[in-house]
Amino acid sequence: MLMRTDPFRELDRIAQQLTGVPGTWSKPSAMPMDAYREGEEYVIALDLPGVAKDAIDIDVERNMLTVKAERRPAATGDHVQMELAERPLGAFSRQLVLADTLDTERIQADYDAGVLTLRIPIAERAKPRKIAIGGESAPRQIGT
User: Fold this and answer.
1) For the chain, first and last CA: distance in Å?
2) Span 38-54, pLDDT tens digits
3) Least confident of 47-51, 100-104, 130-134
4) Contact (Cβ atoms closer than 8 angstroms) between residue 42 and residue 35
5) In angstroms, rounded to a whole number, what is the distance separating the alpha carbons of residues 97 and 129?
6) Which phi and psi (to 5°) does residue 114 adopt?
7) What's the order of all strands across the beta sheet hosting 115-121?
8) Under 8 Å between Cβ of 73 and 47
């Protein structure tokens, strides 16, 4: 089992609560991601809990896939007094360079239960294929 610890996380959280400003140790919020091959396509799953479907933007330019999302506050209004705010708000983005072997023209996107799933087919030109050997050659005659 692999465990990752961040000794400054609790200190940063307390500093942010007291000052309202992210501390020097805070990391930019990212979209946790899994990527794997399933049959003839690659699947990318990004965690975006609390993000509305209409606040997600997906672009592909050449081989660069960009996912942008915005998490807005759930509680707003004049009579709302926030007591604890640990969930990051604001705009997030993630960029991935896609291999030439993927068909970026046929990407499918689904969003369910806070998970954005992108399915990218493998391009036909990248799939393995058999090469036929053509023609019969006559036996070569060596000097008479």
Assistant:
1) 75
2) 999 999 999 999 899 99
3) 130-134
4) yes
5) 26
6) 80, 10
7) 33-38, 41-47, 115-121, 108-112
8) no
Q: Are 90 and 26 in contact (CB under 8 A)?
A: no
**DSSP SS3 for 13:** helix
**SS3 (DSSP) at 9:** helix
The alpha carbon of 100 is separated from its chain's Cα centroid by a whole number of angstroms, namely 17
pTM: 0.66
Report residue 136: phi and psi, to 5°: -110, 140
Structural domains in the chain, sorted by start: 29-74+87-125 (2.60.40.790)
The pLDDT value given to residue 88: 79
If DSSP states are collapsed to H, E and C, what string results for 29-57? CCCCEEEEEECCEEEEEEECCCCCHHHEE
Instruction: Provide the pLDDT for residue 25.
Output: 45
